[in-house]
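User: Teach me something about this protein's shape.
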Amino acid sequence: MGKTTTALRYARAALRLDRPAERGLVLDDPDVAIAEGPFPLLIDEWQHAPDVLLAVKRAVDANLRPPGRYIITGSARNDLHTGQWPLTGRVLNTRLWPLTGRERFGDASAPPLLDRWDTPARFALPSDPPDIMGYLDIALEGGFPGAIVASGAGAREEWMRTYVGVTASRDLGEYYTGNGRRRSPETLRRYLTVCALHTAGVVPDTALAQAAGLNRRTASSYHEILTVLRLVSDIPAWRSNRLKRLTSMPKRCLTDSGLAAWLMGVDREALRRDTDARGRIVETYVTAQLRTEVEASSRRVHLCHLRTQGGEHEIDLIVEFGRRVAAFEVKTSSAPTPRDARHIAWLRERLPPERFAGGVVFHTGPHRYRLGERIEAVPIAGLWG
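Assistant: First, the predicted structure itself:
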């Protein structure tokens, strides 16, 4: 389900500006075009008639319409264009990520995980959770609606190839480097592939640039573009004045595990044999689930990772909400032991009791059980609520 389909669920009418007839009305008189309703009115693909944003601004500033009258959608790549955005302070921004397991298999209407953290319903397990191969199949499908449909039709390879090719040529082709030369879609794809190979890893910028055969400046600009397009979403390092010698490097992460696997060139059989790739893909999948839970929360929540400078201690994901901290590890084993939670226990002992909100080791087995004081093992399917 894409942004337009989602937005139409909340709108009573729509202006589809990618359609010439509707765009023409807005180009002739945008103020009149958005005044009729019925409301809420979806203004879809606004970039085809940018003056419509000024019309919305005038309506908002004149208090002609109460909040919630307009839903405005456009491609993420519009953020790559220079120019002023006239609606600062007048709109609420909602980012759409790939579909989550909760949206596909669970209860999408349940409160976000962090909002129910202190309740018995924190994790709700399905009656028949997947096994390791089931989780790999889900991670390989990823969360792009088109890829999920294509996978069911046996056309995943073709869909991914087309998606990456069109994204690289369309979203990059119109942008120029400072010296007037076009950036190369092929080098952008190569850099994206390098990011996929290092997904769920803590890697310096220089290492990514060298692996892609690019200078650091070019690699940095590509990383910014891929971040704006929401294909890459790095996890920042967690900092605390109670802990010393923590790394400041982010954890690299693609936003979709299916795309990451395709770029890495791994399929179901390859993931069976390759422990490193299997771990990266499963962690990328779980990270995508938690990223969406964090953004959906009514609390002010930050998603981070923890790693000491020498690598003696590292925790896959840290969620900080208020003054509290929850820690998460991701394992591909079906029965994690207290040893798998040792870094979470290390963190627990270094935080005041009121700050440590608990720890979770997500795994591919069927059971939820205790691993230590305020630390538990939970099947990944527990995220589906």
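Now, about its shape. The two ends are 20 Å apart (CA to CA). The first strand starts at residue 13 and ends at 16. If you'd like, I can walk through any region in more detail.
User: That's plenty for now, thanks!
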